[in-house]
């Protein structure tokens, strides 16, 4: 009997683990689908225009196709995030136990907003410092990443900026801290140690968050950001704080971080120190806020 229960438990955990991976697999598939759709439409449009102009050179047509496709990266980014927002928003509602929409006013207090924004801001600072310090270690990899960011228009193109700041934080939180975290929590729901269970589930969703970005450089620092966003989701029992922190990260990365790193010395040691200090402040904020809420939960005053 015990052996049968053990086997049943194993297969249930395996099934929920598969469900944990499924949302990110769907996200990557959606990215490919939208890219292919844009390529088909652009190819047809370029072919029609080239034919009307009497252009028959294959090289000229290919060059024009590459130019139009490059110029369309921000629109491709927008199309993916709009589609993802709808798909994963519905998936979150119908696939994660139909969570009851919460009143943001009941979720947030002035203190919670301050903690959330500070955590998001310092996660951005630490992540930016990580990228700058990594230029000294793996310059070619960082250069390729920067070229990819430049092509996508992030930080420059208004459409890409709007998508990154206002749409991506909502859809990605539905996907990772909503759906993926929901399934990851089921993988560990029978563990007696609930703190350990939370961190295992949190690591799983953060890993999926990193994989979703589909490149090693971005994935390496978004993994750690995902841990912080997952902590906010769990601590405040709502997606609103992780959405606000995600918004803060993307907004700060676009408009604010450059001012800080413009005035500090451009050395590996300084970047490394800023990265560690930023990460340390995030951990300190989470630790103090976690202990405070535990005291409030046990009826102690602060």
Word description of this protein:
The chain is an all-alpha fold and 302 residues long. It has one domain. Helix content is 84%, strand content 0%. The protein contains 11 helices and no strands. Helix 5 crosses helix 10. The longest helix has 51 residues. It starts with a helix and ends in a 5-residue tail after the last helix. The model has no long low-confidence stretch (mean pLDDT 90).
User: Which percent range fits the helix content?
Assistant: over 70%
Q: How many domains, in number, for the residues? A: 1
Beta content: under 5%
Query: Based on the structure, what is the oligomeric state of the protein chains?
Result: single chain
Number of strands: 0
Determine the structural class based on helices, strands and strand pairing.
mainly alpha
Write down the overall mean pLDDT: 90
Count of helical regions: 11
What spatial form do the alpha-carbon principal axes imply? Answer: globular
Can you write the helix and strand succession as a string?
HHHHHHHHHHH
Please tell me how large the radius of gyration is: 22 Å
Largest sheet: none
Give the N-terminus to C-terminus distance in angstroms: 50 Å
**Low-confidence parts lasting 5 or more residues at pLDDT below 50?**
none
